[in-house]
Amino acid sequence: MTTGWEAAVEAQIRSAQERGEFDNLPGAGKPIPGRDMPYDEGWWIRSFMEREQIPSDLLLPTPLQLRRRIEQLPAELRDLPTEEAVRSYVAALNTEVVAWLRTPTGPRVVVRPVNVEEAVRRWRADRERSAPVVTAPEPPRAAPARPRRRWRWWRR
User: CB neighbours of 93 closer than 8 A, spacing ≥ 6?
Assistant: First the structure.
């Protein structure tokens, strides 16, 4: 036995089929993706993260996110243009670390603030290593001196 609203929905679906609104839909005739895979309770979050291109690091607890950022610090600092920018980036990271240390949540993971001077020293060393060697251009060579001929009009 169907209720009134179920019958109305069925009637709308039937009329849409007759009009051909379900023809040529994307994925028609193709198998459902992941049908042969075992059931995964987190399938919807994985598909959402893939579709929206969200990095999986955001799912980590705060201390692990901070440790990962500290481990990737040399690569992040390498692209910064000035020492001032390096110091401000490290200071902002240290502010987050100290805030977490004051009220730790999540798993107990050892996270310590980054030594700013050490980070700047490594940044300078990386810049010196990656900087192209600039040599002074050689001065242009002068053409060899030609003996100057003097033509006298009377010797022709």
Answer: 66, 69, 70, 73, 114
Whole-prediction pTM: 0.57
| Residue closest to 72 by CA, chosen among 55, 49, 48 | 55
Q: Are 111 and 66 in contact (CB under 8 A)?
A: yes
Q: Is the pLDDT of residue 140 over 80?
A: no
Asked whether the predicted pLDDT for residue 88 surpasses 90, the reply is yes
The answer to whether 114 and 93 have CB atoms below 8 angstroms apart is yes
Listed in order, strand segments (DSSP E) in the chain are: none
Element (H, E) at 21: none
Q: Is 51 helix (H, G, I), strand (E, B) or coil?
A: helix
Q: Please say whether the beta carbons of 80 and 86 come within 8 A.
A: yes
C-beta of residue 106 within 8 angstroms of C-beta of residue 62? yes
Question: What does the mean pLDDT of the chain come to?
Answer: 84
